[in-house]
Design a protein that fits this description.
The complex is a heterodimer. By secondary structure, chain A is an all-alpha fold. Chain A contains twelve helices and no strands. Chain B folds into two domains: 226 residues, Rossmann fold, CATH 3.40.50; 67 residues, YebC, transcriptional regulation domain (Alpha-Beta Plaits). In chain B, the strands form three sheets. In chain B, strands 7-8-9-4-10-11 form a six-stranded mixed sheet, with helices on both faces. In chain B, strands 1, 2, 3, 5 and 6 form a five-stranded antiparallel sheet that branches. In chain B, a hairpin with a 2-residue loop joins strand 10 and strand 11. Bound molecules: adenosine-5'-diphosphate and magnesium ion.
């Protein structure tokens, strides 16, 4: 009686069938990596042997800026896609399907979890495309220490958790709201701060102290750093593994907390 | 439930936002197997009543049981038992008709083979087989209403709620819809709770009706009882000549006979079904012959007028106003 499966299948069918939605979703990662990779690349001002030493310091040892930010761009893309999970809930209420769901013997939470799961799934092909695009562009992503299954697992785990975290937050907000404009307003209010008050685009060394300090509490930083660490270093030292475990652990703990909170709040009420 | 009652409300009340009393102290009792109508103008509280019974919204006062289950405490059990065809469309426009029904069948854990069988039968019943694999976006209003009707039936519910099943449909499509509803009740043996602001629809379909206005039940009974309670069927007769017409004024056992044009009289009776044989006997006894005879019974519209002092037509407005109201409802949310 849960309804989770048929509702998730419905979301994915709608996604695959909507060509605009589908293709823009696939082209978006290419744009992102091309734009972010060149727009924020401050290392281009550094030249000569001392310049490349400074660049290497700013980029935590990454061979170039694209390699440094790919984790940040992946995370930000996950964040932006996930924030729109809530709008689908408002559409369902406006266009009628919600009325059907609410009078069926399904769990209220499965209505919301179907949105969350499908938005997580929608992000995965974007991740693949973005990594491939980053690898193919000139002076792009370099796996200095090889590309291993560990890199893949860390990337997938971090992005899935980030997508889960933000789509559940925005879905719960949407269950309490009836107005599309309000949810867009909230998305617009928080998207850029979440992106820039984090280590997604710049390392802590490049930030004002206060900004760097706040950024360490942003889950976007945790995901960006988790991916970055494995990409730059390849095989990690034991102290790097501890740090890696902290980032992924924090993401997992936050996701688990939000899972319970979402379940509790949504089972209690979805506005009709 | 012992006496075959399947739905019962006790002082069921819904107050929106602390001041809009949409339904107040509603008491109705519905027997298993009947088609029960809730009739009343727009804003009477029909949808609010249905929404409480289907557990979509919680009452603010009173209580109700559906199939023996309390609508608040056992809401999940109620939802399993009922089928719902809400006033507004619920199908997903980006899926096909068949996919929509299939999805809903999964909400009720109908086994796949069984669901396929039911869906085939239901699509056939409402003549949607040919359109079943098209996206719902391409359906006409009438097709969408028919689809909604069978989506509510795919899990073979014992009780079906139909909220304004013909709202926005043209006359032909409406009568077609009535036939589907009758067929469903006979073939599938479900109890149907039907709301409508078209009183002739309730008259055509319901075995029992409650007329509601401003959230209150004005009167309950079978449509024929309600109409009979008005006492005033009219038999209009045109005879061959004025002498015969005048003679008709002496027919016994009627309320009154008045002239109504050349060679024509209007006879007012309590109940035309019983009076007509007497009138016909009178005619043959006196060897008169009639050219034309019509019987006019009061409609539920007159019943509504009798109990509210105003006509339901005044409230109804045109179809355009209805549509505007529906759009406004959407926009408000
Ligand atoms: N969600 C709501 N919030 C506030 N008032 C409502 C809401 N839904 C309905 N109403 C009001 O309750 C009354 C009854 O409405 P409704 O049950 O939809 O009537 P009907 O279905 O008979 O047309 C109306 O006055 C309507 O404006
Ligand atoms: Mg209504």
């Amino acid at each position: 009686m849960s309804g989770l499966w048929p509702l998730t299948v419905r979301e994915l069918k709608k996604w695959v069938r909507n060509p605009t939605f589908f293709f823009t979703g696939l082209i978006q990662p290419i744009f992102w990596i091309a734009l972010f990779g060149s727009a924020f690349d401050i290392t281009k001002f550094l030249s000569g042997p001392s310049g490349s030493a400074a660049a290497s310091f700013l980029l935590d040892g990454a061979p170039n800026y694209i390699t440094y930010i790919v984790g940040g761009v992946l995370t930000t893309m996950g964040l932006f896609t996930a924030m729109f999970a809530g709008t689908q809930i408002i559409f369902d209420r406006r266009l009628g399907p919600m009325g059907r769901f609410l009078s069926s013997p399904i769990r209220r939470s499965s209505i919301v979890f179907s949105k969350i799961i499908s938005s997580v799934i929608r992000i995965l092909p974007q991740v693949v495309i973005l990594v491939v695009a980053a690898y193919l562009i000139p002076n792009g992503l370099k796996f200095v220490h090889g590309f291993t299954i560990v890199d893949v697992l860390v990337m997938a785990t971090a992005i899935i958790l980030i997508a889960f975290i933000f789509s559940s937050i925005f879905s719960v907000i949407a269950t309490r709201m009836t107005n599309m404009q309000s949810i867009f307003g909230i998305v617009n209010l928080v998207n850029l701060p979440l992106m820039f008050v984090s280590y997604a685009m710049f390392s802590k060394a490049m930030m004002a102290d206060w900004l760097g300090n706040i950024a360490q509490y942003n889950p976007v930083s945790w995901s960006a750093e988790a991916i970055r660490t494995v990409i730059i270093n390849g095989s990690l030292t034991s102290s790097q593994w501890v740090q890696e475990g902290r980032w992924l652990g924090a993401l997992a703990a936050l996701a688990a907390g939000l899972l319970l909170l979402t379940y509790y709040l949504v089972e209690k009420e979805i506005r009709d | 439930m012992m006496d075959g009652t399947i739905i019962e409300t006790k002082n069921l009340t819904k107050v929106y936002n602390g001041n809009i009393k949409a339904v107040s102290d509603l008491n109705i009792s519905i027997r298993e197997g009947e088609i029960y109508g809730l009739a009343g103008p727009n804003g009477a509280g029909k949808t609010t009543t249905i929404n409480m019974l289907i557990t979509r919204i919680a009452p603010t006062g009173g209580s109700a049981t559906v199939g023996g289950f309390d609508i608040v405490r056992d809401s999940l059990a109620v939802r399993r038992l009922i089928g719902v065809v809400p006033q507004d469309f619920t199908a997903d426009e980006d899926l096909t008709g068949r996919e929509n029904i299939m999805m809903v069948s999964q909400f009720y854990d109908v086994p796949k083979a069984k669901a396929k069988e039911n869906i085939g039968r239901l699509l056939k019943l409402v003549e949607l087989e040919d359109a079943a694999d098209r996206l719902v976006r391409t359906y006409s209003g009438g097709m969408r209403k028919r689809l909604e009707l069978i989506i509510g039936l795919v899990h073979e519910p014992r009780i079906l709620f139909l909220d304004e099943p013909t709202l926005g449909l043209d006359i032909q499509t409406r009568t077609q819809m009535w036939n589907y509803v009758r067929e469903i009740q006979q073939k599938l043996n479900v109890t149907i709770i039907l709301t409508s602001h078209y009183l002739e629809e309730i008259d055509a379909l319901a075995g029992k009706v409650s007329i509601i206005d401003h959230g209150k039940v004005l009167i309950t009974g079978s449509p024929s009882e309600l109409k009979a309670s008005l006492k005033g069927d009219i038999i209009t007769m045109t005879l061959t000549d004025q002498k015969s017409a005048d003679l008709m004024k002496t027919v016994p056992g009627v309320i009154e006979v008045v002239d109504a044009g050349p060679n024509t009289v209007k006879i007012k009776v309590d109940n035309a079904d019983e009076a007509l044989p007497r009138v016909i006997n009178f005619i043959s006894q006196h060897e008169l012959s009639t050219i034309k005879l019509t019987v006019q019974k009061p409609s539920l519209d007159e019943v509504f007028l009798e109990y509210t002092g105003r006509s339901i037509r005044d409230e109804e407005g045109g179809m355009d106003r209805m549509k505007t109201a529906m759009n406004l409802r959407r926009a408000r949310q």
